[in-house]
Design brief:
Layout: H1 2-28, H2 72-75, H3 79-91, H4 93-114, E1 119-131, E2 155-171, H5 176-242, H6 248-282, H7 314-317, H8 319-340, E3 345-356, E4 368-377, H9 385-452, H10 457-491
Antiparallel strand pairs: 1-2, 2-3, 3-4
């Protein structure tokens, strides 16, 4: 009866193995966690204050749909500025650190991919267990074989000399390793996006610093020109004073106006030096260089007439938005990882090698051994750690989604603000041009009338003062318009391509 029972068990074992393998395959198809789906952001069709042709259509098919898609070498025309940005990209320490973080993310991704493979280890081991007479052990009978009186003190109870290859392999039944891989891919993309965001920010800062330096040098030219004009006025007043046409008060007031204009020169020169130091810092260099500016602000042509695209495009083009979404993708994957930790885990293992009592017998064929292990472990009570980790991962995912939504709202708001800033700066620039034209005409007319005796020195001083302020204001408004264009370019995700 026993023999028949044994045959029956053996005959059924292949079916048992088939059922076991089928169960493993079915379990492997059950993936924990949900695949990432981008949340509905309810984005508006266009940006507020965007031009009517801001979306791609047949009428503007030849235009670039989004200036944020331009590289900074295409967006900026100034060769000096382009060279500065290039230097900054190569020398910036933050970008270098971002490269290091990307390298770390790549290594973590490689590690996550390797989780799908079995692990192997090889090495010798030695074990010796010794006891004394009162210990609950006996001398190793084989080791002391042939000895009439085995030792009773510090005798060898066990000796093992082993060299083996060990392997273990956890089967990814629930997709834990796949979710970990997804999270690490998202983290790598996130680090790449952080680097792009740094490049965008650096491009905008260098361009802004460059245009501010250009503005200051133009303002210095204006101040020096006005100072020469004050000298000419003072010469005429002095001649009139000698002729008895004006009092000494006229000379005093004219000299006071000249000194006021002269005080602007060192003030602006100080600002130029500080701005050059700031520009050197952005380029990753020590202060000391005097930067050349060969163009005037009026010669700079920006690309503000090119379409800004639609809000949906910032999700794929703006680096900080992409980084925020990748944080959400990773958080979604970690929910799946935390969920799998609550499910059974299937592990396979094997050890193959030599195991002998005496070291001289280690490589003997009679010492060869093999051990094969399969285990299916279901966690039951882990002090609520697994449940807590899972619930925390759900909360973290919800928070990551909220942060992503907030980032998108902030990006759309920034672009809308930049658009209205450009529009109003252009209107202000047109007014500034008219104001400058009138003040220049007033200076010319007052000077002619003063020279002919039909206007007094106070009218000349007042006209010159208004002209100076109009000149400085004109330069400042033009610079603000350029910076608004740069900010729009940055807000749309430009500057990293």
């Amino acid at each position: 009866m026993k023999k028949n029972h044994k045959k029956s068990y053996i005959s059924k074992s292949p079916y048992f193995l088939f059922i076991l393998l089928s169960g493993i395959v079915l379990l492997y198809g059950c993936k924990a966690g949900k695949n990432y789906v981008q949340p509905d952001l309810h984005l508006p069709p266009t940006f507020r204050n965007a031009a009517e042709d801001s979306t791609t259509s047949d009428s503007n098919a030849n235009k670039i749909a989004n200036i944020g898609e331009l590289s900074w070498k295409e967006f900026f025309e100034d060769s000096i500025l382009i060279a500065m940005i290039d230097r900054g990209m190569k020398n910036n320490l933050d970008i270098m650190q971002a490269d290091g973080q990307m390298a770390i993310a790549e290594e973590n991704l490689k590690k996550a991919k390797a989780n799908f493979l079995p692990s192997f280890a090889i090495g010798p081991s030695y074990e010796s267990r010794r006891f004394s007479g009162n210990a609950y052990a006996r001398p190793n009978s084989k080791y002391y074989e042939g000895d009439e009186n085995p030792p009773s003190q510090w005798f060898l109870e066990r000796s093992r000399n082993r060299i083996s290859v060990q392997s273990s392999w956890e089967i990814d039944i629930w997709g834990k390793f796949r979710r970990e891989k997804e999270a690490n891919v998202a983290k790598l993309i996130q680090q790449e996006s952080y680097k792009k965001a740094m490049q965008t920010e650096l491009t905008a800062k260098i361009a802004t610093a460059y245009y501010k330096l250009m503005m200051l040098k133009e303002q210095l030219d204006v101040a020096e020109f006005n100072l020469r004009l004050n000298d000419s006025t003072l010469s005429i007043v002095e001649l009139q004073y000698k002729s008895g046409l004006v009092s000494s008060l006229a000379i005093t007031q004219t000299e006071s106006q000249k000194l006021k204009s002269a005080s602007l020169v060192p003030q602006i020169e100080k600002e130029i030096a500080i701005q050059e130091n700031e520009l050197s810092k952005l380029l990753g260099e020590y202060p000391g260089e005097e930067f050349l500016v060969k163009r005037e602000l009026n010669e700079i042509k920006m690309l503000s007439d090119i379409s800004t695209g639609v809000p949906l495009e910032i999700i794929k083009n703006r680096p900080d938005v992409v980084a925020s979404e990748m944080d959400l993708v990773a958080a979604n994957s970690y929910v799946g990882v935390a969920q799998t930790m609550r499910y059974p885990s299937l592990s396979l293992g094997a050890d193959i090698g030599y195991d002998a009592l005496n070291i001289s017998d280690v490589f003997s064929p009679t010492a060869l051994f093999g051990r094969f292990i399969g285990s299916l472990t279901q966690p039951i009570f882990q002090n609520r750690k697994l449940k807590t980790n899972y619930r925390v991962s759900l909360i973290a995912r919800d928070n990551a989604e909220l942060a992503f939504r907030q980032k998108v709202i902030g990006a759309v708001t920034e672009i809308s603000n930049d658009l209205v800033t450009i529009q109003k700066a252009e209107e202000e620039y047109e007014i500034a041009k008219k104001r400058l034209k009138n003040s220049r005409r007033a200076v010319k007319d007052s000077y002619l009338l003063f020279s002919s005796g039909y206007a007094n020195y106070l009218e000349v001083i007042n006209a010159q003062s208004n002209a100076l302020q109009s000149e400085l204001y004109m330069v400042d408004v033009k610079m603000q318009l350029l910076i608004a264009n740069i900010e729009l370019y940055r807000s749309l995700g430009g500057g990293w391509k």
